[in-house]
Amino acid sequence: MRKNLLLVLFSLGLSAPASFGQEASFGQELIQPVYSIWEVVLGQPVSQVSDGKVGEIACGTAGGPPGQALVSFEDFMACGPEASGLREVEFSYDDEQDYVALAQEVDLRFLRGGTSVFAHPVIVSLLVDPAGVVQGRRIVTDNRIGSAERRTAFTLIRNFKARYSKWSLNCADIAMKEGEQPVGKQFVHEFCTGQSPDGSTLIAIEASYLRKKGQRGINQETQAVNTGYFESQTRYEEVLAPYTPVSAP
Fold this sequence. Notes:
This protein is α+β, with helices and mostly antiparallel strands. It has helices at 3-12, 96-103, 147-150, 156-163, and strands at residues 54-59, 69-70, 87-93, 116-117, 120-128, 134-141, 170-173, 188-195, 201-210, 231-240. Helix 1 (3-12) runs parallel beside helix 2 (96-103).
């Protein structure tokens, strides 16, 4: 984190200088990440992804806690291969803009910084083949946030559907499995696949909002509300052919 920047701004009682943008006031464009998951070019060597433009780098765990910390993207071979043979390298966005925004007293609830996609906190990663070529990208909503904010994570699929509206998406609802329950009256489990117009890239998107087996909204003994006992998430994967994204559950 760029704490030194924040300390300097507050200790001097200064606002962020105009050199951070064309306007003296803090615009939304100023908290755009220095480097985002969308700037990764599939099919190019992972060595072209700049280590200096991101935050932390680690082996990915398909949306779980970060694995082994890495010094560089080029250390991808330290990560274990998935069934496809690809290795997942997770990274966080550089947070300098977040600290400038905080110094400006900008409300980050509306101008979301950090590692996010369409204002949803996410975990982003690259999928790299043994030759060091980036074959795909993965985005999973981050479960390490508060229950109220996590509740809307499944709605991220709507943004992806809009982004890939020209990819002839094929979406289907997945039936409720044994033990699963709706959250209140709402049950969402949707899976979409798509292909780029030129046929070179495949995507898979899954969204769920439900109670898994064993998750109850009310404690049966105390009758108290079980806060956070639900699953709400969106998972996205994009890969170059002949690799294929995750299959439908």
